Each structure stands twice: as structure tokens, then as C-alpha cells.
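Form 7-S
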Amino acid sequence: MNKRGIFIVTMGLLLSNAMAGLDGTIINTALPAIISDLHGIQYIGWIVAVFLLGMAVVTPLWSKLGERIGNKKSYQMATLLFVLGSICQAQSDNMTFFLIARAIMGIGAGGMNTLPFIIYADLYDDLRKRSAIIGYATASFSVASIIGPLIGGWIVDVFSWHWVFYINIPIALFSILSVQLFFKEENIRSQRKKVDSLGACLLIFSLVSLLSGIQLIGTGAPLLIAALLFLGLFLLLVLLNVEKKAMDPIIPNRLFENIPLVIDFLMFALLWGAFIAFNIYIPMWAQGILGFSALIGGLTQIPGAMTNFVGSIIGTRMQGGDGKYRIVTLGTLAFLLAFLVMMLANVDTPFWVLLVAGALEGLGLGLCFNILQISVQKDAEKRDIPIATSFAYLLRILSQTFMSSIYGVVLNHSLLKGVEASNGEITIAMLNKLSNSQRIAELPEYLLPRMREIMYTGLHDIMLIALFLLVLALIFNFAIQKRAKQV
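Output:
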């Protein structure tokens, strides 16, 4: 490929990051209106988890599919599924159909978001250039994250939440056409190797069982939850044994023998498990507790989008002199400060505090992501770069899915406890309306302070759990640096 072709393909792939940024901020902005309209505040954890679950179960499979039919076709298939899920969500009139459509979108997102980073490794051999491209990917995500809340909030306030999902369609089609016309693959790897179908099935069923069991905690039958968790763990153990004998394993065991790579994986899991709490629940804090509109709630995402870009640029430039773990430590500290601010906040905390916390969270994300992403590809063997890239992405998704399920359980527990303590004055249906500025007028004004206290209790507990994850990440990072100095 010539420089012009590489440039156009890169621009087309960067649009996938823009779509990810748009979807993430728009869905968070529109979420209060969606759960209010579809009567599903108790399913808020499922709305997030089912999307991430769809991504998780297929992410390693997309990289393997790319090795057989080519990353070009795989990316186009994934993006088309993403669009199909968007259209189906826009057409949803009940929570069940919405969740199914969200899962389809997640399956597409699993390939659409991870395959570009594999393609970048093929297009750019030089690590500095590749690091710069990943920085641009962060920038496209950040720009879309800035625009997303404004567009999403405006659409929800003026039209309806259904329209926020149509934005993805023209962007996705343009990206698909760019890749189709200008991306030329020289080789398609592993075309003749036997497909590890047993490993793929075990991976899917184990993840579905585990994450479904986690999501049912607090609402499902204890026996069913225990059975799902046991089945998931058992299938994972079987998977590890099967992968030892497979010719072309879905997840090679040798990845876990690479200590620096395992450290990268662990840091991704801890940091992104905390990140999802801020991403989902701060817009709800602004709308449900402070009483702002969807547009204003969406503004909480903008400072983080800006500082995310700044952090990615700073981190890339600092890496050579300060080492990756020191930069990740700085990012983790910024993360930790953001959640510390929110944990100390109360019902009367002013809106600008949320913006400051958002700026700190975005800075932490920017400092950590680029460094860890390049580190994964640098620490992996050359033959393992595709699967290591997709597995790092899988771990981020699993961590977010797992923690979003836990956060959903925590919120549901607080809401149900508050409803029970109100002696029938407050219901779940009323709490559904609390975070929707268009329907809050339907609620008795004298009950609003008590309802906001109920929601605050749940969100405060979520911030505390996320803070604990970041403390663990910080301790682990300090321990790694201490060990490196001793060696």
C-alpha cells in the first residue's frame, strides 16, 4: 500500500473510534430517558452488561476470523452488525427487544473496536508511528465524546431518545467504503489451520454463564446464580485444558507465561473496572440527584473527553524517559482523585464539582490507555500481536461487564431498600421518572428530596467500590516498580 492508501484507510478506521465515543456518551446521556420510557430502571445494569457481554464473547473470535478471511472483511462484517444493532435499538418499544438489539450491537462492536488496532500493527511497523496513530484514535474518540453529549442531550430533549441511534449509520457506511476501496491485504494468515471450534464454544458458554450469574445477583434465585457461576468456572477450566492441545487455540496459554504481558492485562482490568462506574453513573447523578436535563447531564462527559486527549499526548511523550509504570501510576492517581471527589460529594454538591471530577477521570484514562495498548503489542511475541491485542480488549470488556453488573446490583439494592423504608410512599416506578427531566414534574414535589437521597446512597456506594479498585491498582503498580528497581 502507498502512503495515500494507508492514510485513507487509517482515517476510515479512526471513524470506528469516533463511533465508539459517540455511542458511549450518547447512550449514557440518553439512558435516563430510555429507562423511564421503557420502565426499566431495575434493568440499567443489564443495558450496560448485555452490550459488553456481546463484545466479550466474540472479541477473540473476531481476531481469529480476521486471520482466516482477512481483517478487511471481518471489520466490515463487524461494523454492519453494529449498524444493525443501532437501527433495532432505535425501533425498540420494550425493554426485551432493546436488550436483544443492544447485544447485537455489542457483538459488532467487539470486532469494530479491536480489529483496527490489529490493522494498525500491520500498517505501521515503527512503534513511534503506531503510538502516534493510537494517539489519533484517542483523539477521534475524545472529539466524538465531546460532541456526543451535546448532540445526544439535544436530541433527547427536543425529539426522543430513539433518534440518537441513527447517528451511527452514515459514519459506519463511510468507514466501510473507505476500507473497501483502499485497504489491500497482502496475506491472510492461518487459512489452512483447523478452526478451534471447541475452544470457541467453551469460551462463549463460559463467559455467558459467568456474566449472567453475576448480573442476577440480588434479583435471581440463589440456586440458579450458584449454578451459573459454577458452570462458568468449570467451563473455563475445561477451556484451559482444551487450548493446550489445539493447533490454533483461540487464547494460547503461552500468553499467560509472559509476565510483562500479564501485568499489562491486569492493569487494564483494574482501571477499566473503575472507569465504567464514572462513565455510566455521573450523567445519572447530574440528572437524578441534581435535577438537570439530559443535555446538561451529558456535559459531565465533556471535560473528561478533553483531558483524555491531553493525557494521551502527554503519556506518549513521557514514555521514553519515565517508563510505562510511572506514567500509569500518574494516570491511576488522577483516576483515584476523581472518584475520591465523588465519594466525598453529597446531594447538594454543585455541578462544577462533577466537571472537575470528569476532567481528572479523563486525564487518568488518557495517560493509561495509549501506554498500556502499545505495551501489550511490544511485550507480546510478533505472532501473538493480534490475539494479545484482542485479549487485552476482551479483559477490558470483561472487567467492565463484571463491574457494571456489580454496580447495577448495588444500585438496585439501594433503590429497593429505600422504597421499602418509605412505607409505600415511593415506588420503583417513581424512581424511574426521577432522572428524566421531561417526567419529573409528574412526581410529588415534597418526596423529591427523599427520592434523591435514595438514589444518592446507591451512587455513593458505587463510587466507593470503584475507588477500592483504583487503590488496588495503585498498590500493585508501586509493587511492580519496587521489584523492577531491586532487579
